[in-house]
């Protein structure tokens, strides 16, 4: 039985979606894939549904109406995966900024004892390709800021390439997750650590998308900046057990 599922949120990813699906299914380790599509007007969901006839019982899709946000897409996927008893549940982008080959390394980290494995751009220097320096600096210092405010020792707090052991997602109250963008990624890491789970960082090389459009916005960045403070303050009044 396949114990691992890769959740890939999509919005207008027709250039990438078939290639990323085929790449994941070509790996030596067997993974299932769940696409959570937010009503892509470019036909992304239609491509996935065509591929489902080829990858029967391996490729799944959940379609939502409207662009509801990255965080809510992952939460939808987490609940779907938990209901189907997967042991390892992954977050990954559709645009090849995350190398599908690294799924195997993240899974190995969890099999060997980690509860949450992060594909980290900054655990061994700065491993980012094709980003302008301004964005590299913004991302790097965002993690410095998160460490300063929250006290968690994570070098890449905004990373979106993650493997969760199911017990982490069973423990964290998913209904209480507040944020949808970068702050969502920070919140999941912060709460995993506060609940006492073992979180490790696995070095990866992050390559910016070559096809499609970035979903980054100033609203997402603003949410992360102020959300970190909110997370820390609220943690003072919460019992972690």
TrEMBL record:
One of its GO terms (cellular component) is membrane. It comes from the Bacteria. InterPro entries: DPM1-like, Glyco_trans_2-like, Nucleotide-diphossugar_trans. GO terms for molecular function: dolichyl-phosphate beta-D-mannosyltransferase activity. GO terms for biological process: glycolipid biosynthetic process. The keyword Transferase applies. CDD domains: DPM1_like (cd06442). SUPFAM superfamilies: Nucleotide-diphospho-sugar transferases (SSF53448). Keywords: Glycosyltransferase, Transferase. Belongs to the glycosyltransferase 2 family. This is Dolichol-phosphate mannosyltransferase. It comes from Sphingobacterium psychroaquaticum.
